[in-house]
Each structure stands twice: as structure tokens, then as C-alpha cells.
Amino acid sequence: MVSIVNFGRFSKRRSMKREIRELQVRFDAGDQRVAHRLGELLAKLGRSDELRARADAGDRYAAEHLARLLAAQDRIDELRDLAETSSSHIVAQVLYATLAGLGRLDELQARAEGGDLYAAKKLVVVLVDAGRFDDAVAVQASFDTADTSPSDADSLTVLLVTLLIDHGRVDEALDVQRARADADDSYGADRLAYLLMEHGRLDELRTRADTGDSSGGREAACDALARMLGEQDRVEELRTRADAGDSYARNNLIFRLREKHSSEDLRALVDDGDTYAAVALARELEHPRSDRELSAFIDLLAERGSIDQLRVLVGESSTLAIYRLTHLFTDQGRIDDAIAIWGDRTEAHPNDWHAPYRLAQMLAEHGRIDQLRARADSGDAYAVLRLADLLAGQGQVEEAITLLQAHPHSPDRLVKLLLDEGRIDDAVAVRRAAARVPGARESSDQQMARILAELGRFDELRAAQESDRHGDFRLANLLVQLGRVEELRFFPDTGGVDEEHREVQDAPPVE
Length: 511
What we know:
Layout: H1 2-28, H2 35-44, H3 48-56, H4 60-72, H5 76-85, H6 89-101, H7 105-113, H8 117-129, H9 133-145, H10 150-166, H11 170-182, H12 186-198, H13 202-210, H14 218-231, H15 235-243, H16 247-260, H17 263-271, H18 275-285, H19 292-304, H20 307-315, H21 319-331, H22 335-348, H23 354-365, H24 369-377, H25 381-393, H26 397-406, H27 411-420, H28 424-436, H29 442-454, H30 458-465, H31 471-481, H32 502-505
């Protein structure tokens, strides 16, 4: 029986040796994926010399397997030497776990004081597990003041705070986290805010929310406080903070109103002038497939002249509310307020093209030339167009042309003004330049073709169409649309418009 067991062990070792040789060949050929398995097999066979050679050559997996082998064989001095030369944190962790198991806390203490994060973490765990909470806190404090990186100090703090809370030492945990927060650690201040919320420390949380700045955890404190007030149903305090501009309180208040009240109750609150209930109801009425109910609600507010409630819905980015409030202000002669709505929207949503478009339109409608000019000078294309229209409408055509030439956002508008002034060659030059711009609309080519055709400049027209493989067909259709059928005699016989170009023949007249 013994011989059978020995034979099995011998066979297994022989198989492992064969696998090592195969893996070594693959590793030498550049296959780094086998390094972990190769180190594992060498460790199982106790071949520490080969593992050490591989570790010295930079093999991280060999170093880690060697560390575990040395620890298992109580070869502490060799393990310590390996940890000094290896960059693997696993090797360090194996050493520190071994030292802790042997009760050599003084060595862990020395390494922790030297700024070794893994030694400090292991020492803290051992001390907390042993009930030596004050000693664990002292380790963290000394590590915090050592020449360590903020991220390492945060990491040790998080570990210690978690361990203390797990052991029911909440006050000590908060003291540790508070020390980090008060040392201008923004991440530490954020974590403290949520710890205060989790453990019901409302007064301190309120104080931190009302003082300091965003870098000192004030934003997190406001968020945590609003959540806590909501959970405790302190609606009036939420309302007070929301009125003072606290966005976290505002959002939590609206959430609580939706949670506590039906749509009918919210409508009653709206009837009483509650602006936050208006937002809550608007969110309640939002539907992914239909905005009919929400639109009806906003229309009702507009009919009532509920400016404050519409204004908060504008803050919710409701386009319909923006329009309704604009109309209300306009009807009341509050043009500046109406314009300000779109100005605020433009600044708050720089990627929303509709806001600057509507702003420029309103400025033009109310003759605000100076404001339009300021926006045009800043590069607002919509302001340029509206200002040009306004100037041209007032007879200042040359100034409008000069403006459009300085801001070539719309060659169509510039060409029209030039044609109206009889500056045909200038109009053709502008259109030709626009047609050469990469990505220019096909209508640019068509407008230039129409201008040339109407002027009878067919040589230029044919030259302009040569780059278009459908040019002859497009040109023939253009002449037909213009009633210049007699000019078709100058064209070679194309055999009619075939199926490939029938969409050209059937296209609507070029505008």
C-alpha cells in the first residue's frame, strides 16, 4: 500500500517536472503568460534556488511564489531580503503577515513609521483585532504625519475607520475621519459628511453644510444633509434650504413631495402657489411617449399667469415653459425679462443651438441693435444674420453687407443682398467661393448656376458644371425651370434624361 502511494507521488512529481520543462521552453520563446504557472510548480517542488534566480531576473510571479515558500519554511531573513529587493506588494504583504504571526509588531511599527503602507495596514488590523484601538489610532496618526502620499494616508484612514465602525467604535472612527477632514483633505471631508449622515449626526452635518467651501466637503455635506432631512421627513427645513438656493435640498424636497402626495394633492399645492409642488407635478406628468398632460399643466400655469411656478419649470429645462413664460413677459411689456430667459438659457446650455437662435430673434424683434452687435462681435452666427436683416431693413444695406463679409456664416444672405444692390460679379464670387468649401450644400452650387443662367453667362455655367458628372442633366433641368428652352440647342444630344437621372428631372424648382 505504501509503495503504491509513493509511486503515485513519484509519478506526480515526474509529471510536474515535465510540465516545468515545457513551460520553460514557452517562456524562453517569449510567452509571458506561463510565468505564474511556472512559478507555482517550482514552489510546489521546493526549488527555491530556481525561483530566486527568476525573481532576480525580474519575474514578479517567481518572487511571490518564493515569498510564500520562504514563509512556510520560516526562512524569515531570506524573506525579509526578498521584500527589500522585490517591487511586488504581495511579497511585502507575505512578509508582514508572517511578522504579525510571529508577534514581531515592533518591526511592523518601524516600517509603518517609515511610510510603508502595507506594514501600517497590517499593524492596524492586528491591533484592532486585539482590542488595542488607541494604539491603532496612534499608528494612523503617526503615519499621517510621516512623509507619505495623500492617497496612502487616505487608504489607511479608510481601513481604520471601517475596522473601528465594525467593532462598534463609531465615535473613535468619526474622530479619525474628522482629523483628515479638518486637515484640508477634500476626500476626507466628503467621506466624513456621509459618515455623519449614516450615523445620525444631524447637528454637525448641518454646521458643515452651512460653513466652508466646496473644497472642504461643503457640497457633500449639503447632499448628505438633504438626504437625511428627507429621510426624517423634515420637509419645512428642506423648503427653507431650497429657498436659500441649496440645490440638494431642492431636489430632495421635490422627491419627497412626489413620494408623499398624489397628483391630485400636488395640484392642490400648486393651486396654493407652491413652486416646488409645480416641479414635482411636472416630473410626475412626464411621460416618455407623450407630453400631453405636462403640456396641459404648463398651459394652465400660463393662463393663470403663474410666473414663479413657470420660472422654476424653466429651471427644469422645460422648453414649453420657456416659451410660455416668454409670452407672459412679452404680454406684460417685460421685454428685458423675456430676453433674459433666453440669455440665461444660452449661457447654461452652450450646445443648444435653439437658445442663441431664439435670443437673436428676440433682440431683432425688439430692435436691440447694440445687444445684437455685441453678440455678433463675439461670433454668434444667429446674431450676425439677425443684425444684417435689421440693418438692411433700415436701409443700411452696405453696413449689412460689410457685416456679412466679416462673418461669412451665411453666403446665401450675402449673395441676396449683393444681387439686390446689382453687384452681380461680387455675388457670383461669393457663391463660387462658398461652393468650393468642403461639405458645402448642393444648393450653393445650384444657386450659383441659377445666377449665371439668368445672366446668360453660359460659358461660366458650363465650366462650373464640368466637375459634376450629372452636370449636363442638372443644367438642362435648370434651363427648363427658368424657361430658357432656347438655350438647350447649345447642348450636345444627351438622348434625354435616363432612369439614373430621373430624380433630377422630377426635382422641385431650385429656390
